[in-house]
Amino acid sequence: MVDPEQGKSNSADRSSPGGDARPGVSSRFEQFEKRQKELWKLTFFLLLVLAVVFALVSWDSIRSLSKHFEALPIGLVVLVVLFIAYMWKKTQELSELRGLMHGIEQRDAAPPSEKQIDQLFATITRSQQGFRDLIDSFDDVLIALSLEGEIRAVNRSFSDLVGLPFQQIIGRHIAEFVEEGSGGGQEQVRRNLPRFLDRRSWSGLVQARLKSQQSVHYFDCVAHAMVRDDKVHGLTVLARDITASRKNEARFTELFETLQEGIYITTPDGQILDANPALVRMLGFDTKEELFAKKVSEVITSREERKLLREEVERQSTVRSREITLQRKDGHPIVCLNTAAAVRDSAGNVIRYQGAVMDITARREMEHRLHQQQEFARRLVDSFPDLILVLDIDSRFTFVSPRSKEILGYEVEETREMKLGGRTHAEDLPALLSLYGDIVAGRQTFASLEVRVRHKLGEWRLIRFNFSPLFDEAGKIDGVVMSGRDVTEMKRLEEQLIQAEKLAAMGQMLAGVAHELNNPLTAILGVTELLRERGGLEEATKRQLDLTHRQARRAARIVQNLLDFSRPAAPQKKPLDVISLLERTVQLHEHSLRRNNIAVDFQPLPGFPGVVGDPNQLMQVFLNLITNAEYAIREVRESGRIQIRLARDSSRIAVTFQDDGVGIQPDAVPRLFDPFYTTKRPGGGTGLGLSICMAIVREHGGTIEAESLPAGGSAFTVYLPVSDEPVQKTTARDPDATPAPVAPPISAALKGRAVLVLDDEESIRLLLKEGLSVRGMRVDCAASPLEALTLISQRSYDALLCDLNLVVGGTPSSGRSAAARILAASGEHKPTVIYMTGDFVETGEGVPGPGEPRRLQKPFRVSDVVAVLRDVLTASPAEKVRG
To answer: Which DSSP state fits 342?
Structure first.
């Protein structure tokens, strides 16, 4: 820079002759030397400040970057070398100037020429321009100010910042261009100026507002005093614009404060240095300070987990998405995903850990609930009685339920390579594939089909399949779900129900001799059972006894069926849902109806009342009426329709079965419910079905009416009383189901008890004596009431088993009278009376009313007698029997 007053002095010196020029040149030379030293000091000082500031500001950032930029300080060294080379060049120019000045001084007699003076000033000008170019090359702002704030010099960076050339900046006050951002700049300068003059240096962050732009900038500033003759007459300010970094820092702070994930910074010794609000909330603390007071060991309570996490971070530098458990302020644990990294110094030592955690406790709970739901669905499918199959659109199985083993004999693994129709009967395969194609194409949304499927063992099983489409997330059909139920036994049951009509006719004809058959059957069953229990029998004898026992049991069942038919037993009545019962009945006969092209039109009524009845017997009635309607249709046409309609009045409901078959002749209507009357062709039926239906319905307090329709066909209407009790869904009992096993008698309850048996059948007496004696009871038998009276007079008994129909000396005798006489002769200790009879006993009569004895229906087993004795004697303690 050039001072204006010095320019005038130089002109005067040049115009002076001879001896006046030497002192002026020497003086100027000294001034140049002094300025050179000051310039060198300022230049090197600025270079040192720049290097230090850059190193301090950038080193941590460079070390924390994922990529290594440690080469930046080396670049700074290269820049310094280039700067020294440049300064060396300028020093050479100054040396040249110094030599020139020295030559001028040596010339005492002759003053320097005009050319030499011009050459000197040209060299000085080049040197000043070089220094200005050097200062202008700085990216940071450089300003030289007087103590009053007047701008003496600036570099190009400041000129570009305010948008004005040098000529419009030099000599003006700094306040004309910028002002302190907080508004208190003048007061701060006045207050801090004495301290600056004392220390002669200052550094700090300045927030400045550019008046030309009305924008706020942030500058990292370093100010040094300009001293002349040990007096401060100005200052230089080096300012680095950090506005962008401050904005980035503000964005980072905003991001840090608003992130939903928890951010933390900790020391290697477990001190929490910083955390964002999300982590504070996540751990249940109210303030950051409350969290900072905790150690890492109080947040990650598991010592083993802390150790593994530390080792993993130190080994890999960064650990991503590792699941850890943190403890909240209230003591509850939370599950989090942790991403952690280690920050190291130049020596490679860890100086801090930093990372982020995300609370996944709710996700884990959701996954747990989802797992439970999936497990429930899997268990539900596994326990479902039907076979569940899922197929893709290429007919390949994608899921097979475990029921495949029970229904078809195949393990789930064996079905993986199977395709639809591979085990299907050839006659049923076209219909199966056609229906499957309709479901996949969307032409049907639900359908059912019965097909024959070969069991693994070779037999054919009849399976009723229900088809439903399976949709993907886009709503397109992705496969088919099939549920299959084995109805082979159900079809056999239908055939058995038809045969039951014939057996019922036999029962009605043989009801008169049932009583006489029950006594010998009871003896045969009991004796063969006792004989089989004995040891030492030959194999042939055992086989014969087994055969005899099986045949006797068969005969006993036939006799019992005959009795049931001759006088139907009172049903096990309970509230029933008629609609469910009708649906179950139609389902039972569905295959036959479909095979004969007969459609069933059943329209359930919502809120339809229920009835009180036995579901199995009412189902038998409904099934018989549907079977008759099917037969009537097949008599006249290849296909038909059965309509089932529901109605009610104030006290009863009506269920009507209407068909479009052959109809009923007017003269046949009055005789339809007579036994053995049938309108079917020979071999078509026994004529007992409708009579059985009428007997069952009357037992339920209702009736059946039949009529022939004018347009053809017939209608049967079942009337039943309405139930006031709440109804429940019902399912019919399987007639072929094996009865639940009877619990064995309690020996401790019967041991030592005395029983008196009065029966005119010797086989019954022997049977009961041996059968009850082996169970620890004392048994005495009498063939007549007189023998029983003799025994009762000698000892007391806990129970009396008495036949209701005795024959004494060929004369019938009442068992009730004999029991009364025995009770009268028994004294204070009266036995409990249990009657035995071969006549029909109504269901429920075995349980007596108040003061009434129990009854045993012949033929019975010894276990039946033991069960009754246990019921009547368990409540009474055993007494000592008189000898």
So the answer is: E
- 817-832 mean pLDDT: 90
pLDDT for residue 91: 64
| Model confidence at 297: pLDDT above 80 | yes
List the single range of 477-491, 672-686, 819-833 with lowest mean pLDDT. 672-686
**CA-CA distance, 269 to 353, in Å (whole number)?**
10
Instruction: For tokens 């004005």, name the residue.
Output: 164
Two tokens, residue 140: 């940071």
- pLDDT, residue 419, reads 82
Task: Take residue 112 and report the two structure tokens written for it.
Answer: 């320097």
> How far is residue 179's CA from residue 185's CA, in Å, rounded to a whole number?
7
Output the six-digit token pair for 680: 């079917």
Under 8 Å CB-to-CB from 78, ≥6 apart: which residues? none
List pLDDT tens digits, range 348-368.
888 888 888 888 888 888 888
Question: How many whole angstroms separate alpha carbon 702 and alpha carbon 618?
Answer: 11
Q: Taking all residues of the chain, what is their mean pLDDT, rounded to a whole number?
A: 77
Helix (H) or strand (E) holding 640: strand 640-648
Segment among 139-143, 214-218, 449-453, 533-537 with least mean pLDDT: 533-537
**574: enclosing H helix or E strand:** strand 574-576
Picking from 860, 882, 658, the residue whose alpha carbon sits closest to that of residue 780 is: 882
Determine the Cα–Cα distance for residues 793 and 789; give it in Å rounded to an integer.
6
Residue 97 burial (C-beta neighbours within 10 Å; 0-12, 13-18, 19+) = buried
Question: How far is the CA of 619 from the CAs of 616, 731, 734, 735, in angstroms?
Answer: 5, 9, 11, 12
Q: What whole-number distance in Å separates Cα of residue 882 and Cα of residue 597?
A: 76
Amino acid at residue number 318? T
Q: How confident is the model at residue 746 (pLDDT cuts 50, 70, 90)?
A: very low
Query: Above 90 in pLDDT, residue 802?
Result: yes
State which amino acid sits at residue 875: A
By three-state DSSP, how is residue 423 classified? Answer: coil
Strands 333-344 and 350-359, by their bridges, are: antiparallel
Q: How far apart are the first and last CA of the chain?
A: 150
* d(C-alpha 651, C-alpha 671), whole Å: 28
Q: Does the structure show a pLDDT above 70 at 765?
A: yes
Cα(804)–Cα(760) distance, integer angstroms: 10
Rounded to whole angstroms, the Cα distance separating 34 from 159 reads 28
- Of 776, 817, 815, the C-alpha closest to 798 is 776
CB contact at 8 A, 841 and 855:
yes
| The residue to which tokens 């899921």 are assigned | 399
Cα four-point dihedral sign 630, 631, 636, 638:
positive
Q: What does the alpha-carbon distance between residue 709 and residue 714 come to, in Å, rounded to a whole number?
A: 5
Query: In what order do the strands lie in the sheet containing 477-486?
Result: 397-400, 387-392, 477-486, 460-471, 447-454
Burial category of 321 from C-beta neighbours within 10 Å (exposed 0-12, middle 13-18, buried 19 and up):
exposed
Instruction: Kindly state the helix (H) or strand (E) to which residue 520 belongs, with its residue range.
Output: helix 514-533
Give the ranges where 589-688 is alpha helix by DSSP (H): 590-595, 615-634
Q: DSSP string spanning 294-339?
A: SBHHHHS--HHHHHHHHHHHHHHSEEEEEEEEEE-TTS-EEEEEEE
224-228, 288-292, 357-361, 500-504: least confident range: 500-504
What is the pLDDT at residue 512? 55
Mean pLDDT of 721-733: 62
Which pair of structure tokens corresponds to residue 64? 């924390």
Question: Interior CA angle at 468 toward 462 and 472, to 5°?
Answer: 140
Distance of alpha carbon 555 from alpha carbon 521, whole angstroms: 7
Amino acid at 694: M
- DSSP string for residues in 461-514: EEEEEEEEEEE-TTS-EEEEEEEEEE-HHHHHHHHHHHHHHHHHHHHHHTGGGH
Measured between alpha carbons, how far is 429 from 876 in angstroms, rounded to an integer? 67
Structure-token pair, residue 439: 């479901």
